[in-house]
Amino acid sequence: FDLYFVSSNDHKYLEAKNILETFGIKLGFLKSDLEEIQSNSLDDVALRKAKDAFFKFKKPVIIEDDGLFIKSLGGFPGPYSSYVFKTIGNDGILNLLRNNRQAKFVSIITYCDKTILQSFDAKLDGIISKSQKGKGWGYDPIFVPKNSRKTFAEMNEKNKLSHRYKALKKFSNWYLHK
Ligand code: ITT
Ligand code: NA
To answer: Per the UniProt entry, what are the Gene Ontology biological process annotations, in alphabetical order (predicted)?
Structure first.
């Protein structure tokens, strides 16, 4: 492989691999738990993760940092999405919400090699469903993207419209012409 995805999360890798395949890019996997700095900025977390990943493996890498931002909760869990999922989980989130259910998913893809450090971000607006629907990983059973009636977990076309798809599309345009 010319390019590797460094992450502890198999689901993220499999989706990224499938998405990049559609752009003609083959993506290897280096499964690794990168230490995440505590920061209110997803960008800072992503830059740091990418530098650590390159330093560790000395190969061209991309990493991804995601966050689910819920409007009525002031953007919570945002940069703490991973921790919040592991602690209160989807039921915990559902218990915090009332009428305003607006949310967005943000993805930052950061590329790092010997000379380049470059980020690509994208967001996808949506709402948090009233209950968990469908079988999926992470927040998929509670996130309903804009213009859809299904949660990510219930749909087949997630990889054609997700926050991950949008950020990887930007990355591909750059990577293939770099
Ligand atoms: P890394 O090792 O790559 O950091 P992670 O699972 O910790 O893996 P993030 O910090 O980027 O990944 O993700 C924040 C949280 O958001 C995490 O709990 C994920 O399960 C969840 N998440 C990210 N993308 C998602 C998606 O497409 N669908 C559902 N949940 C998602
Ligand atoms: Na993480």
So the answer is: nucleoside triphosphate catabolic process
